[in-house]
Amino acid sequence: MPPPSLPNSHIKDFFSHLPFFAFVLDEKDEIVFWNHSLALLLGIQENTSKDVIHKHKIICLALLKIKSLRNNTLPEKNGDISFVNDDGSKKFMTISINSCSINDQVFTVCAMSDETKRVQKENHLLKIATTDHLTGAYNRRHTISTLENEVERFRRGKTSSSLLFMDLDHFKKINDVHGHHVGDEVLKTFSEIVQKRIRSLDSFGRIGGEEFCLFLSDTDKEQAEFVAKNLLSLFQKTPISALSGTVHFTASIGISTMNEKYENVDQWLQDADKALYHAKNTGRNRACHIDDIKQESTLSSEHAREAKR
Known about the structure:
This protein has 309 residues and is α+β, with helices and mostly antiparallel strands. The protein has 11 helices and 12 strands.
């Protein structure tokens, strides 16, 4: 027995002239009707086989979303889907569903609208609001917000994460000798090196001037030190070409790993900052962890007490 189709030609006419992409499912979730707008979107004819339509990427995603919307207890049955086109561009769509009964047959009416331009605009505005325009790193406000969330996450789950506070060495001299435009290139190159080598769950931000903060999620002391040493090596191996000559740059890094004593972001940053200045004061172009500095200080104090005896 063939699947039922919409029984009323007036209803078909109504759906055909809707300004959005629409299709109708029967009780077996088989498509019994689709409008002209959807046919254009899918690149099909209006008399195309239903089996072909069911295999289309957009329809497959829509059907999965429809199943989840039906299980949703909220009164509004709306959701979002996204996919990548053949040309590599990303498309965003919203989908809404409603049930209706026609001649004792229950149908699901599905309507989709293209929200790509709206989402792209929102993403663009979000990037402007959260990103440093020169380096592409997150700005200070977003970085601090990320760290605040991590402090709360640690309180709930005691996960180990580390903070790398980084500062370019002798950056003022680079600006004075080669010019601010070369200094900007150094900042951009420095940022590109870091951003190419971090994971999606990490976060890299510019705190101000030549100071940057790298948050490494689920990363303990040893792992953070390994990342820092690799970055220091890459900085040294990546000179900048300028009219005034080749510009080499290095950085110093202070590391602090989240633990129970940090009650807020300020305390976490302060320890990373102390470790950074220790790296600066002991030769630059190196990474120091706050725990090692405190251990050295404790040992020095013990040796001093022993000498007095």
